[in-house]
Design brief:
Elements (H helix, E strand, L loop, with lengths): L1 H18 L3 H9 L5 H7 L3 H8 L4 H8 L11
Helix pairs in contact: 1-2, 3-4, 4-5
Length: 77
């Protein structure tokens, strides 16, 4: 049931992006999958908290597999 709600919300967001004239954003939204939510959540928080939330006993698993944040850089403009 959660996946179905996710799909409905994703489709609604894509339609809203299309209606605002942003076809590129709509295409990116449609590519986002339900399975992307777990690594995204882990990437947005500290390693200790993410590891606890995901139930990993070894923080290295969380770091290698789930945290997908690259180096932060400043925008050029």
């Amino acid at each position: 049931m959660l996946r179905l709600r996710f799909t409905a919300a994703r489709n609604a967001a894509a339609v809203q992006a299309e209606e605002s004239g942003d076809q590129r954003l709509a295409a990116r939204i449609r590519q986002f999958q339900f399975r992307d939510a777990r690594p995204k959540a882990a990437s947005e928080m500290a390693l200790d908290h993410a590891s606890d939330l995901l139930g990993h006993t070894d923080k290295q698993i969380t770091k290698v597999v789930y945290q997908r944040v690259g180096k932060r850089v400043r925008p050029t403009r």
